[in-house]
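hi! just following up on the protien thing from before. the input was this:
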Amino acid sequence: QLRFRADSIHVVTVAPSLEAGAIVGFPRDAWIDKETVLAGNETAQLPEADLPSGGTKWTNLLASRGPEIMLGTAEVVTGLDLEGYVITGFKGFDGLITYLGGLVIDLPKTMRSGNTWANFSAGLQTLNPTRALQLARIRKGLPRGDFDRSFNQGLIMQAAMDMIQLTGIDALPEWVRILTDNTWTDLTTEDVLTLGASAFFFESDRLVNTVLPGRVGTAGAASVVYLTDDAEDVYRDLEDGLLTVEE
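and the predicted 3d structure came back as:
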């Protein structure tokens, strides 16, 4: 999984003392130019390697270079000091949702799948692992495509946080074990414990879910997303681990 394309790319922040945080989604087809990738390569302290002539999509960067370059490039793009990465794949996602006993989620609206999968109804429902993964992946039936998919992935994180809280803080060691069994991470054990513990101390809606602004375009024959200048405002707002919520 560390060398497959990335469907879900997010910066997650928590500020436990302020009982808040953020989930900031990158559209998976966001375009990263070659100079940024080279700078990310240097930040990650990786050896030089052949890179696409003009640039690449975020999703392809993981497949071609691995998680270290993803982390280093994210630091260059955002200007943020990111502590590490957590990665899972379809099998790991299935394992996490299985341990939860399904995903209880309140969807804000009806969503078309855009393919042979069943659509998703609005309202409170419990999704089995297969349906939860489908929700994380649908794009073609959504009005804003890649952007809505990334937002839905944030909704899934918030819903999982709600369910984990119901188990109580005493269950933290078990949840850390489940996480490490189903993911890869370069975080220290202490960092994983801190991140996990923070999920118990504030409501999930205090973890602001947003997706970076962008426009759809092309790079050669490829359909891509170009992040707009407004993305820089999000990065700078996020420097304290929080995002300003517009009323």
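The first strand starts at residue 9 and ends at 15.
The chain is about 40% helix and 20% strand.
cheers
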